[in-house]
Amino acid sequence: RCVLKELESLGKALYGAKLIAQRFQVRKCSHHKDPVSGSACLLSMIEEGNPHHFFIATQDQDLANKVKKKAGVPLLFIIQNTMVLDKPSPKSLVFVQKLQTNQLVPEHQKQSIVQLKEKEGLAKQEGEKRKKRKRAGGPNPLSCLKKKKKKTQEGQEPSAEKKKRRKRKRNRVKAEGVQSVQKNEEE
Question: Where do the segments described as Disordered lie (predicted)?
Answer without folding.
Answer: 106-187
